Amino acid sequence: MTAGPLxxxxxxxxxxxxxxxIGAMLLGDLGADVVKVEGPTxxxxxRYVPIGATxxxxxxxxxxxxxxxxxxxxxxxxxxxxxxxxxxxxxGLVRDADVVITSMRADTLAALGIxxxxxxxxxxxxxxxxxxxxxxxxxxxxxxxxxxxxxxxxGLLFTxxxxxxxxxxxxxxxxxxxxxxxxxxxxxxxxxxxERTGDGDSGDGETVQASLLHTALWTQLIQLGTAANAPxxxxxxxxxxxxxxxxxxxxxxxxxxxxxxAAVTADAWDRLTAALDLRVSDPETGGPLAxxxxxxxxxxxxxxLDEYFAKQPMGYWLGRLEAAGVWCTxxxxxxxxxxxxxxxxxxxxxxxxxGLRTVAMPFTLGGYExxxxxxxRQGEDNDDVLEGT
Length: 389
Hints:
Layout: E1 10-14, H1 19-29, E2 33-38, H2 65-70, E3 75-78, H3 84-95, E4 99-102, H4 106-112, H5 116-122, E5 127-132, H6 147-153, H7 156-159, H8 174-197, E6 207-211, H9 212-219, H10 221-229, E7 248-252, E8 258-262, H11 266-276, H12 291-296, H13 298-309, H14 314-323, E9 328-331, H15 334-338, H16 341-345, E10 349-351, E11 357-359, H17 382-386
């Protein structure tokens, strides 16, 4: 197997919950030696029970699914950082490390002796990375925060809501996943700059910070930029039943499956209606409805398309629209995706060595396959990692 681009890099993962852990996991995917350090009671996510469920579920390796999905390709040790001896053992690991990642609040970090000042006193050249909530400075830097709260503060819950006066929270820890991804991106940039400038040799370690708030703002790059610079052209989101354009929407077919179409211009709308052999009439004149009229009567046209697509199965429409050059795709469920030939051909899903199925790292490198080591049980690598510290 080709060595990973981060082979030889050691990362000390002092994170709890998801965002920082995902950042460390991606470094492990790239070949770094990631050592996750947990306290005697373990990372709280080991005991996580999804909201609405009555119990947590175990992955094939016997650990909680939420933990398992965020902590592949790591070794695991248990240390009680309130104990001076265990704290010294951690510092022994820090001396030989390249990166430390944390995700705790500043007062907790200081109390445990793993704040930036304490860590860099042990290893001045280390890259110190933090995943946070609402940012690391400012009046709300110490606020408790999690995935949805970061999106709420950033305005994202209104941006994605189809209801103009009611927020909507996307499920699935999306903000945690993206914040962890951004954190790993920043760490790789810091390692590259350290290598190019030699700052590590001079003891001037890098600092990397990512937050749930910043990530949720970045997710809205287009919407926020439009609101800040040209608010008059910002159009709020709408439900499928009230689209801005019926040509950019989703339609249910006769077999119960859905198709998504993206006829984003007047020419594309003409190709769509030609492929469907559909004539849309002006409700006032009875003549052909021009594209401007289609947008003006979007709801009514959507109803006509609903009735039209319901006459044939999704595969029929997909083939017909693709042949006409209309942008379209099936609207898949997660069950569909797990057996989809396109997903499989690109190896976008991965199976870990304990049988857990998950998503592969979100990019590919020619000739490199990421390791597939499952998340470890608590304390599983104590003897191996802590020998001699």
